[in-house]
Design brief:
By secondary structure, the chain is of the alpha/beta class. The protein folds into two domains: 167 residues, D-Maltodextrin-Binding Protein, domain 2 (3-Layer(aba) Sandwich); 121 residues, Periplasmic binding protein-like II (D-Maltodextrin-Binding Protein, domain 2, 3-Layer(aba) Sandwich). 44% of the residues lie in helices and 20% in strands. It contains eleven helices and ten strands. Helix 1 packs parallel to helix 9, helix 2 crosses helix 9 and helix 6 packs across helix 11. The chain starts with 9 loop residues before the first helix and ends with a helix. The N terminus is likely disordered.
Amino acid sequence: MMTGVHASTYPRLVSRRTAGIGIAAAVLSTTHGPAVAQEFPNRAITVVCPFGPGTAIDIIGRQLAQHMTGTLGQSVIVDNRPGATGNIATDYVAKAAPNGYTIYITSTSIIVNQFVGAPASSLTRDFEPIAISGTLPYAILVPTSLPAQTLQELVALAKARPGKLNYAGYVGGVPQFLGEMLNRTANVNIVMVPYKSTTDAANDFIADRIQVLFTPVPSGLPFQAGKQGRIIAVTGEKRATILPDVPTTREAGFPDLAVEVGFFFLAPAGTPKPIVERLSSAIATGLHDPKVWAALAAQGVEKKEGGPDETRAYLAAELRKWEAIVKQSAAAAK
């Protein structure tokens, strides 16, 4: 029971006090923003990776995390959380505290996931863009036992053997859509054999049970080096720096297959802008280090970088592109 205040005035007083607290909090947030950025980081940072050790995204994450450790003066650790085509890691980071200590290195696969199934997290709603950290084309491989030396020869072989050739894919992943796009644009029927990931298909590819493998260039290089497979095309807009003699799908007459995997860093939505910018600067510093870049280039990574604004624009464009690709694939399947 309040004394000295009429009951009817109580709601107004509460409202004013609440508003006052909100204004004070806003002022504190504004005035302490730079201080927060200067104090950040004061403990270890975790970079969550949606795929397992040894994958292209893991290699990029570890190279940059090691360099960021020196730049930021705190340990930067990669935490692999594979599963559900990346959705496990995506949801984990989306729910993390927006303080810069849990960030995400992810790729085009997560963009595709936005249009396949019912993802719990939204790239545009639940994350703050930090930085772009490179791109990779996909390699199109065939076993060395297959007579096709070029993409055109593979198409001719597929037309001569309708439904007899297989490709490895996983439902909702980039390889599935590359296979569907090749079938549609070349008017062939190469049958998808589903795997949990392209890594799982390696043994079947080596054993000749799979005739076509779509995989990022770094994953394809060991097959070619070991003479277990032949890279007949790459899907980038231009030839891969590490494979200058291998034509692009566009050069081979299939421009619809000109897609790349982009790699980028995200933070949970609400992460303060000064912290996002500090992280972005640390990533850019790593990408400009000759030793870091030499290690990434050796894996076939192509240069592409940008800060928060460029990453936001890149994501918007990629979301539009992959929404159209998925819709077209769904329409073609009906």
